[in-house]
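Let us work through a complete example step by step.
Step 1: write down the sequence.
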Amino acid sequence: MKLWQKNNEDSQRGDKSQQVNRFTVGKDHDFDLMLAPFDVLGSMAHARMLSTVGLLTQAEANDLQLALKVIFSEIEAGKFIIQDDVEDVHSQIEILLTARLGDTGKKIHSARSRNDQVLLDVKLFLRNEIEELTNQVFSFFKLLQEKSEQFKDDLLPGYTHLQLAMPSSFGLWFGAYAESLVDDCISLHAAYEVVNKNPLGSAAGYGSSFPINRSLTTELLGFDHMNYNVVYAQMGRGKAERITAQALANIADTLAKMSMDICLFLNPGFGFIHFPEDLTTGSSIMPHKKNPDVFELIRAYCNRIKALPNEISMMTTNLPSGYHRDLQLLKEHLFPAFATMKDCINMASLMLSHIEVGKEIMKDKKYLYAFSVEAVNELVLAGMPFRDAYKKVAEDIAAGNFTWDKSLAHTHEGSIGDLQHAAILNMMQEIMQRFNFNKVHQATNSLLQFGQPK
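Step 2: predict the structure and record it as tokens.
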């Protein structure tokens, strides 16, 4: 059933029409269910706005908002479905409103197009997903900082080119990934700012001759701004998804790199860390095996997410302005990535909550040369020119005469001896405050409280 269908001709075309419908709808019903609560919120704001410009009576607007609240409750209870013969979530909700309110239900689509409905729904969905992901990243960040503090005195070798380089520490290692998440949240906030603009009112992409009040719907839905130019509002579809995908890819890159480190550190050739047996997997024929399957899968999932911005970019390449059905496919690629990303963070949190680290790794004589730079620096501090000190230590190593007591004196900001946890936490908290999620919560609650006794 298509609300835009003008007569019975389509229903009489038979198999060909059904094939076209199957192909064009594709998997959209599954992803439209994810948009359903946001479509209702958008319709509630739209109905309230229509009553202020005379396109609905106050009574009609009230009836619509109360009916939409019921639909919202049905969605939350898992009772909402999109019927097989209904094209999309927008049509399903309008059909329900019409069935329950008669002609009043048909008026909800005044001054609106399905194009700006889906634009709005996607932005509200992305805004909500970014909030959930940001809060989850922040929790993971705090876990990494806790581990950094817990293991700050436990040394491990650092590598360049996967060759022994200089001393590091678990405090430094955990802290590095914590600070990486700070920058990842900066990119998440940038995506949030792009997403948090109201496209509603752009209609099919060229505005409306109705005297709508777009500032009011912007306020009612808790947006910081609107997409002012109606053509750009439509052009922004694909761009918002791509920018959001890049923010996801940045987090994925942090987790993928960390997972690769952990796979190496767990290898017996390194032997730096240990996990309880119930968090690793074994082999069907090798009884000694403890495989890091969780981190191998996190690495693979995250590498797949890292490809997402390019996938979205390719799907929107060379599209002119205006709406095109190509954009429908973006949901199939982007929407599941949020669940995957959150699942990866959850599993990484579980694993790292139970990690055990080696306490005396650097006492092994095979790591002696990691302290060569310490020896060079000590000679320099005693007055020897750096190049001469470097040459002397190199000669001692070549002659087999190099020794070192393996003590460290790293005191500058961000080094083993000064991890700067408080400064890094302050940066993260400052970024978290920029999101201002409370504004959205207040706007949503205000819409959903309509009709409740005061």
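Step 3: interpret the result. The mean pLDDT is 92.
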